[in-house]
Predict the structure.
Amino acid sequence: MSKKRHNTKKTLPSKQVIGQQGINLIEKIVLDMGQVWRSTDVHDTGVDGEIEIRQPQTGEVLNCIVKVQSKATSKPFTAETDTGFEYVCRQKDVDYWLGGNVPVVLIVSRPKSEEAYWIHVNEYFKDSQRRKALRVFFDKSKHGFNQDCLEALATLAVPEDSGVYFPPPKREEILYTNLLEVERYSPSIYVAETDLRKSEWFWARAKENDLKMPNEWVLRDKSILSFHDLREDDWARFCDRGTVEEFDTDEWALSDDGDKRRMFVELLNRCLDTRLRRHGCSYSKKYDCYHIWATKNLKSKQFRYRSHKQRTSREVFGPYKSKAVEGRIAYYRHSAFEGYFLRVDNKWYLEINPTYVFTSDGYNTSKYAAERLSGIKRMELNEAVRGQVIMWYRFLTQKSTLFRSEYEMLRFRRLVLLNTDCSIKDEIWLARKDPDAEARLEDGCEMELFDL
């Protein structure tokens, strides 16, 4: 009778090898950050290790911990696409991660290609629907686990009142602001008494007398103020020329009197609208912004300009076809911006906030304008917004042509640029963006440059 032989050779399953490779990859990334990694060698009950935060400049370890659960694979991730994938958790793991008071991150990796992605599970599973589904969705562009994650990790581990500061990585960078410097405005303001009380009365009188009048004027307290010389003949229909007084514009522009500053800003807004109209753009009270006009044939309109690197062009008006009905135009998109004049250190700037206007026929508001604007705002990040700011800067500083003289009542110089010796990461900026910081600044308020 033969005896059955038993295989006595020791084996190491591939799954364990890949798992260790995943932990090794995490350790390498953590050490590259200058932080401390400790594997959990025994009693593995839902975490594979921990990261202790270390002050890179001094080497001081801070006893601030983030626990790590590692999941590695050599195969495609679950439901993987070019942009993301998902990971299905076990109920007992989720219960364990959320049961303590230490932050836990889940790191899913593919060691062979040195890919690693992370999620802070305590925050992710605050949503009851996510906790019920047990699925974590990873966005490859946002959730990469690499050296750039240090500040975000430190934020999880270090108490807010600790006073510990982790400086951004050293790298010189030029920051483009959305402030366009005012180079010139009309040097004189003219003030005269008038019987006009409303702008409609002004335009009605101009029509009655067949006069083509300019727009750079303001009615206030039985007076008319303008950058135009009110002593000229045509103005006799609108004011008492015997009461005309001329003032240095800086008396309004640099005044501490809020009412004077507001009147000056109102004149600047009139000048801005006049300047833009020369190039097929104007202010719309309905949309509360300046936007490009529709072309006469409703065809696409391109604006050619020099960006910060090269010559380029941008569609500033154009039709967009319906996805549901072939051949039908769903809407027209107009490039636009919200513009606000600000005084900073006794200099005036135009704040440019790019936006869009959506119309159904080039003139009337598109039915789903609000949804389209919200959708495009969610997609556009720093690079896209910067490109639009530069486009509007070029648009606002266009030179005169053979057929049009230079507009002298308002000229702009350049965008304000700031040099910094550190890099600012979009993902951290967006995660911490304070909605209160977007509150609209009152026209003409005085502030320090770095309060912006």
Remarks:
- Residues 431-452 have pLDDT under 50 and may be disordered.
- The first strand starts at residue 36 and ends at 39.
- The CA atoms of residues 438 and 452 lie 10 Å apart.
- The domain at 14-167 is CATH 3.40.1350.10 (Trna Endonuclease; Chain: A, domain 1).
